[in-house]
Design goal:
The complex is a heterodimer of chains A (about 400) and B (about 375). Chain A is of the alpha+beta class and about 400 residues long. Chain A has helices at about 10-25, 25-35, 40-55, 75-85, 95-105, 110-120, 235-245, 250-265, 280-310, 315-340, 350, 365-375, 385-400; strands at about 125-130, 145-150, 150-160, 170-175, 185-195, 200-205, 210-225, 230. Chain B has about 375 residues and is an alpha+beta fold. In chain B, about 50% of the residues lie in helices and about 15% in strands. The chains are: A alpha+beta (about 400), B alpha+beta (about 375).
Chain lengths: ~400, ~375
Amino acid sequence: MMSNQFSELDAFRIEVRDFLESAATAEIREAGRKTTSVFAPFKQAMAWQKILYNKGWVAPAWPVEYGGTGWSIHQRYIFVEECNRLELPPVLPQNIQMVGPAVIGFGSEEQKAKYLPGMLSGDDFWCQGYSEPGAGSDLAALKCRADSDGDDYILNGSKTWTTYGHHANKMFALVRTSSEGKPQQGISFLLLDMNTPGIEVRPIIGLDGEPEQCEVFLTDARVPKANRIGEENKGWSVAKYVLEFERGGSTFGAWLTPAFERLRTRCQQRNEHELRLIDDVSVARKLAKLEVDISAVEHTEKRVNANLKHGENPGPMASLLKILGSEVMQRFSELQLEISGVDALALQHAALHVGSDIAAMGSEADMLAMPYYLNTRAASIYAGSNEVQRSLLAKAVMGA
Amino acid sequence: MIYQYSEDQNAFRDSLRRFVQDHYDYESRRQRVAKSAVFSPDYWRQLTELGVLGLPFSEADGGLDLDFPSLMAVAEELGRGLVLEPILPVTIAGRLLAASTNRTAKNHLAGLIAGETLVSLAWEEASARGNPLLTQCKLGARGDGYVLNGKKQAVLAATESQLYIVSARNSDGELTLLLLDARQAGISRSSYLLSDGNSAADLKFNHVDVPTNAIIATGTEAETLLKTAVSEFIVVMAAEAIGAMDQLLKITQEFLKTRKQFAMPLAMFQSLQHRFADMVIATEKLRSLLWAACQQLGGEQQEKAVAQLKVQLGESARYVGQQAVQLHGGIGMTDELNVGAYFKRLTVMELLAGQQDYHLGKLADLAVVS
């Protein structure tokens, strides 16, 4: 029954869907399907970013004057839902959700004019130099030194878990400009050029056999102080600001719901014995249970978004959603692997690459199940491990 | 009931452990997997000389006539060292040949024990989801003999083997076991590595000629032989998992003691201590069921004990593998550190020979019957 009440949000969804369906090329869609980690294949992710940039839709959460869309939080969620419905590659978060907001919040007008356009368009790719071998969960313990030398800093140290460091032309880094006081009080936020002499990048091979993360070694690398965002020794606040920039930005549900539908559809296919997995009651029940969890994630995200309107501070909900969302993603990846079973066992490096002329041995979905499962183990580790997040959540609810 | 290895078994184990330590440092193994050079004829020869292949075969067949726990001890060491050579699948295939009443089959045992003949048991099919009696391989009549059509998946060591034992149903619907030469016309093989680095292949049978003497068992005998082989495979794989899990616990506890964040070794954080304790519990549960199952082999409770074991293997392997990665943080996600390799091996084990659902279903069926 067609309702006469066609809301503005419904019209917006149609507008988004129409654009996405027309603008996404076959190669970009292939890259989206073959996104087996939280980071899409680099080349196609940047190509897709450029397309969205040309449409004016690349940074929905940015203030309009810097290139944002002015969409409500609900529209932003719908946009993500529609991108995931088409299995499009997510725009890499580094430019748009990490360094961009830092420059918007703490950059001088000159810095904004200099750096924001390249971040937005994707002409620059900014990799993240935060973690170090000795500073993971305890990021404040970072040691990479930025020693003062006239108008420049001289950098010495190393960074790790730098996604796509080997593809980046720029880096935003947290560096130590003072060892006095608490560790957080001696950190500065610095922008640098990856072709600065003294910078060496070493890709790290992940569990799926692919080089996504990198180590970055800095030896007497000279970076102008003018590249610092915010005041010296106040970089920790810049990093915290970035985390809070996209309040209500959790979109696990927007990914999980269409992905779950695709998984359930696969279970409705008949195999060589004319049997369907969906007719196996244990499979049907596992799917149903996962759907309960996905529904809980989705409605929690939407509830947080709705409550933001009333000026409520998300408070513990950010930690809650990180824990819940990542663990349901992990459960999804497990169930997907269980369903593929023996069909997921073969290593298929060559066929995994976008544009490969080697076809998957069986179905593409079966080929993707294992790399996706392996990579998704990281979801409970990055962006604040779930152990740390649980402590934060407990403290936030119970009071410090 | 016995619950531990004998002195002799431990002595054999120690010598195998030394061999594995000397030849299987993680970086060398990683390089071999990266180059897809996972079968070393030299290591195979050395392992054969250690006596590993002949352990569970009768002296009449040319073996050492040792009991099943001896093979389990070997399996634990192979798991502990993430050894790539397919000692266990070949041994289990050999035991099927030994248990059969077929002369041709038994004639290959000497070559197998000497390390010259490798045999692969080709029974898994993705759509069978762990049920050895469910196959879409068909053996039709043709002239004086038969013709085989169908496919098998994830056949361990198929690339290295000279002989395949293949399960198929004949035109009367009976299960048959066939012994085929790997080079036979009509057999095509697509070789690959499993996610854990082990060698496997999918086999396609396209009108393969099967002479009558290639049929080594039919009907009830075939079912019994195949079910026993799969049961034995599950038991040795669980032992391999125990070796891998014990090593993973060792690596993880070392890491927790040395890695510091927030000025404290990770081992001092209570939540991580509890997690580690849960990993220990998962490992001990599997160890207990492994001892129980190995002693039920060949007995009335074999089916139930092995199904229970495989359920526990799935649960424990998943938990210990996942948590070892989690406790190592980011470095657990790298190819460079061995933790990921253990995690991948344990993940593959869960998917082979039927997942938890299949075996829970079997247990439920067994409960109804009794």
